[in-house]
């Protein structure tokens, strides 16, 4: 049973009733269940003033004709004369239409609902009628009035191996009508034979594609069910089912229609305390442990005690600032050892707040004007700065408010001379907070803390970046309901699925403990094999490279198994300083990075500033829309001296190292040729650098469409899917409210990838991909199938991507890519990939 394409006809439904209101009400209910694709017409009541009860054959005939198609029409009626009117209407129809119309004895309401669900999936007319006639079975089964329906299981592909999937149904009302309809819908994409049984009631197997059969199994919350699939796409169907079950068959998590059994209600917020909460994925993985909650007394709400003379207050503040400065420097140093330098530099921003001359002048003046003591004036000053940030149009800059508040709060604590009841560095288990301050994440002990969850917070915050770099499973933005959890209670963090379960039950815990073990084993294996080349099962090679922003990361990349650097974001050499590094300084950096790679290739991307990466000392001028402004290569082409110094530094370093050059944000062939000419000019003084391969990033849709022209002079391309997604969907990449438009797995984006690889390969050029998508192990078979030759990603992703490549078969991946290109949404592509991942599971294996 496959949901037909929108233009293929489906069975239409006509609802005949004595009452116009009743007919319309039933139609409304059926539409809700069948979706907008199902055609439903009504013939209720009679013409006349007011509401005239009765039925009219002509009206029934017109209703049938209004939606007639070769798929046929099913007519459902209420009582008495409704049947006669329908029979008469049949006589009034043209003879060739008549045989495609069935009058159905099904109960009106239940029959219409079931018929709509079946019609939706292109079920033939007679089968829709048969299902509608059995529509009372569910109710009868529930009330004990009839034998449970025993629909013979659908044939599927006989003789093909069977796979099974077991799980406990967690929906509040079990597999009631709505979840059962969603089950039908999800299965419509697959051709596999599918049966179902209720293990808890030890029922017989029934056809899982019959809504009546599913509903009559009486599956209630907590019941264990088993799906049995056979046929070519049986594995994929079961995986889709698993995902559906995990999402509670579409019932809202934690809502009345879903969730785990309620384990003790609490008066707090009058809401159930157990069940799933969904949020934003920050760092993937599974964690189970006792909650360590951080929502306690808000220090900033405290008032100041005794206020001394202004000079004493100012001294007090100086001491507090000094203490916090020392703490920040310690945190920064400790983090540089645990994470990378770039991450540690987040705390440079904190130091800048503590030393901000304007802020300190304001505080000094207000303390000396008698506006308050050190505590209250500092608190006001910090709020003032935070408010200024709040009004900025840039999402990324706005999310820096957390840094200012964080450091501001630390000064207040220092002024009071006390600290939190249990400092974050002594915490263990799963930390739960309203919002994490970056300093809290930096100070925590990554060996003791298993997971992080927060009621608020965005993926681009510094706290999120830190959590990712520490590799701790984390989900933010879970909502205020998170506060229902109390110290020591069990939390289950399924960060990969961006959700957290409060008070999970035994069965769920056991399931997740298994999953966590498998995940750990996979990670360990990937780590052991990280230095080995990653060939696909059929011997196809894709290069795995690293994205770096600092020279030190080149060493880390080699240690992590990188076969080179596919993207050196050189702009990071230009940040956190007062002026640009000169040619010599850059030369040293590039040479150092190349040395660390010990002969592996190094792709140096020229300066990519502007947009979300402004360079304060090189003012690009005020722009209403910096993401569409003078950024990337455009910026370099108008800052020639700066650009030439960088190109010379690269050419010098390339004399004795396998260095390649790459330009960012190329929109036209003219820009590309201009940049290339400047490179050639710079390289002229270093003849040995003339062999250097020069390529460009494809991150603006115009470059995709120009690829055949660009290929004439380019040695290679690298797809910057972060920006390409942003510009393709006109959705700013850092804006958390547009996250749904920033999915690089969208088929529209995949079409762009396919076009680039096809055109480039036809002209003998290779194609890399260095956006975040490259580090997503799930996407690996798809990218291989689309013909990408090199994947470049952040260092922590390298081992797992190599492992995903080893599991992949390039021939099969090409088929998968073709399927993905014909999908209509990113969600469809994700389901397809989830099915692919499931394909590795052995037939007959139980879950
Ligand atoms: C990209 O846009 O995909 C890319 C890799 O560049 P950046 O993230 O540095 O803009
Ligand atoms: Mg980019």
UniProtKB/TrEMBL annotation:
GO molecular function terms noted in the UniProt entry: phosphoenolpyruvate-protein phosphotransferase activity
Protein origin, superkingdom: Bacteria
Domain HPr: 162-252
Pfam families according to UniProt: EIIA-man, PEP-utilisers_N, PEP-utilizers, PEP-utilizers_C, PTS-HPr
Cofactor(s) the record lists: Mg(2+)
Keywords annotated in UniProt: Cytoplasm, Kinase, Magnesium, Metal-binding, Phosphotransferase system, Sugar transport, Transferase, Transport
Top-level EC class: transferase
Known EC number: 2.7.3.9
Annotated catalysed reactions: dihydroxyacetone + phosphoenolpyruvate = dihydroxyacetone phosphate + pyruvate; L-histidyl-[protein] + phosphoenolpyruvate = N(pros)-phospho-L-histidyl-[protein] + pyruvate
Domain PTS EIIA type-4: 10-143
Subcellular location, record wording: Cytoplasm
Subunit and interaction comment: Homodimer. The dihydroxyacetone kinase complex is composed of a homodimer of DhaM, a homodimer of DhaK and the subunit DhaL.
Similarity field: Belongs to the PEP-utilizing enzyme family.
Annotated function: Component of the dihydroxyacetone kinase complex, which is responsible for the phosphoenolpyruvate (PEP)-dependent phosphorylation of dihydroxyacetone. DhaM serves as the phosphoryl donor. Is phosphorylated by phosphoenolpyruvate in an EI- and HPr-dependent reaction, and a phosphorelay system on histidine residues finally leads to phosphoryl transfer to DhaL and dihydroxyacetone.
Name of this protein: Phosphoenolpyruvate--protein phosphotransferase
Organism encoding this protein: Stigmatella ashevillensis
């Amino acid at each position: 049973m496959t949901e037909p394409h929108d233009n293929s006809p489906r069975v239409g439904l006509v609802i005949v009733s004595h009452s116009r209101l009743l007919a319309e009400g039933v139609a409304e209910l059926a539409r809700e269940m069948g979706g907008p694709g199902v055609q439903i017409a009504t013939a209720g009541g009679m013409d006349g003033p007011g509401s005239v009860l009765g039925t009219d054959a002509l009206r029934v005939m017109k209703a049938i004709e209004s939606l007639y198609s070769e798929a046929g029409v099913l007519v459902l009626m209420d009582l008495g004369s409704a049947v006669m009117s329908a029979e008469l209407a049949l006589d009034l129809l043209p003879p060739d239409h008549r045989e495609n119309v069935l009058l159905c004895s099904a109960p009106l309401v239940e029959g219409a609902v079931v018929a709509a669900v079946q019609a939706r999936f292109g079920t033939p007319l007679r089968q829709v009628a048969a299902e509608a006639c059995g529509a009372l079975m569910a109710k009868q089964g529930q009330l004990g009035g009839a034998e449970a329906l025993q629909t013979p299981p659908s044939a599927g592909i006989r003789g093909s191996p069977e796979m099974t999937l077991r799980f406990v149904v967690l929906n509040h009302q079990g597999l009631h009508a709505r979840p059962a309809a969603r089950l039908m819908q999800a299965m419509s994409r697959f051709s596999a034979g599918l049966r179902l049984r209720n293990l808890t009631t030890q029922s017989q197997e029934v056809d899982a594609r019959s809504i009546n059969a599913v509903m009559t199994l009486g599956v209630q919350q907590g019941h264990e069910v088993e799906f049995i699939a056979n046929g070519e796409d049986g594995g994929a169907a079961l995986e889709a089912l698993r995902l559906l079950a995990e999402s509670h068959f579409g019932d809202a998590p934690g809502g009345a229609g879903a969730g785990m059994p309620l384990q003790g209600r609490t008066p707090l917020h009058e809401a159930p305390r157990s069940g799933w909460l969904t949020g934003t994925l920050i760092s993937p993985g599974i964690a189970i442990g006792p909650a360590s909650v951080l929502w306690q007394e808000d220090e900033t709400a405290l008032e100041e005690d005794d206020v001394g003379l202004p000079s004493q207050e100012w001294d007090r503040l100086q001491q507090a600032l000094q203490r916090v400065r020392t703490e920040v420097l310690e945190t920064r140093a400790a983090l540089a050892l645990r994470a990378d330098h770039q991450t540690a530099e987040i705390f440079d921003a904190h130091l800048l707040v503590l030393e901000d001359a304007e802020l300190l002048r304001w505080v000094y003046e207000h303390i000396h004007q008698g506006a308050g003591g050190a505590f209250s004036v500092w608190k006001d000053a910090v709020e003032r700065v935070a408010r200024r940030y709040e009004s900025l149009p840039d999402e990324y800059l706005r999310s820096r408010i957390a840094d200012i508040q964080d450091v501001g709060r630390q000064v207040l604590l220092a002024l009071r001379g006390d600290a939190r009841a249990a400092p974050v560095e002594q915490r263990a288990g799963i930390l739960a907070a309203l919002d994490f301050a970056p300093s809290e994440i930096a100070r925590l002990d990554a060996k003791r803390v298993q997971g992080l969850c927060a009621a608020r917070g965005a993926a681009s915050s510094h706290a999120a970046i830190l959590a990712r770099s520490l590799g701790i499973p984390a989900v933010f933005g879970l909502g205020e309901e998170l506060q229902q959890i109390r110290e020591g209670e069990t939390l289950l963090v399924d960060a990969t699925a961006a959700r957290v379960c409060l008070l999970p039950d035994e069965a769920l815990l056991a399931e997740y403990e298994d999953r966590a073990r498998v995940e750990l084993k996979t990670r360990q294996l990937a780590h052991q094999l990280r230095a080995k080349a990653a060939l696909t099962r059929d011997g196809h090679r894709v290069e795995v490279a690293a994205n770096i922003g600092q020279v030190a990361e080149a060493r880390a990349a080699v240690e992590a198994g990188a076969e080179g650097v596919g993207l050196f974001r050189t702009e990071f050499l230009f940040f956190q300083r007062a002026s640009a590094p000169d040619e010599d300084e850059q030369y040293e950096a590039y040479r150092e990075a190349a040395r660390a790679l010990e002969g592996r290739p190094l792709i140096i991307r020229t300066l990519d500033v502007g947009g979300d990466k402004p360079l304060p000392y090189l003012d690009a001028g005020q722009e209403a829309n910096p993401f569409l402004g003078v950024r990337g290569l455009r910026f370099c082409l108008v800052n020639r001296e700066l650009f030439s110094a960088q190109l010379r530094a690269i050419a010098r370093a390339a004399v004795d190292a396998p260095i390649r050059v790459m330009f960012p944000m190329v929109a036209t062939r003219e820009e590309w040729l201009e940049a290339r000419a400047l490179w050639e000019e710079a390289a002229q003084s270093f003849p040995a650098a003339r062999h250097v391969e020069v390529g460009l990033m494809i991150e603006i849709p115009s470059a995709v469409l120009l690829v055949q022209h660009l290929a004439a002079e380019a040695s290679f391309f690298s797809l910057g899917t972060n920006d390409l997604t942003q510009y393709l969907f006109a959705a700013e990449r850092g804006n958390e409210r547009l996250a749904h438009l920033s999915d690089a797995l969208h088929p529209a984006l995949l079409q762009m990838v396919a076009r680039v690889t096809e055109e480039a390969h036809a002209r003998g050029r290779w194609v890399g991909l260095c956006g975040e998508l490259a580090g997503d192990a799930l996407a690996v078979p798809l990218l291989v199938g689309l013909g990408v030759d090199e994947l470049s990603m952040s260092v922590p992703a390298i081992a797992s991507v190599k492992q995903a490549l080893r599991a992949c078969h390039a021939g099969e991946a090409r088929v998968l890519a073709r399927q993905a290109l014909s999908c209509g949404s990113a969600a469809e592509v994700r389901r397809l990939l989830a099915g692919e991942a499931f394909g590795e599971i052995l037939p007959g294996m139980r879950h």
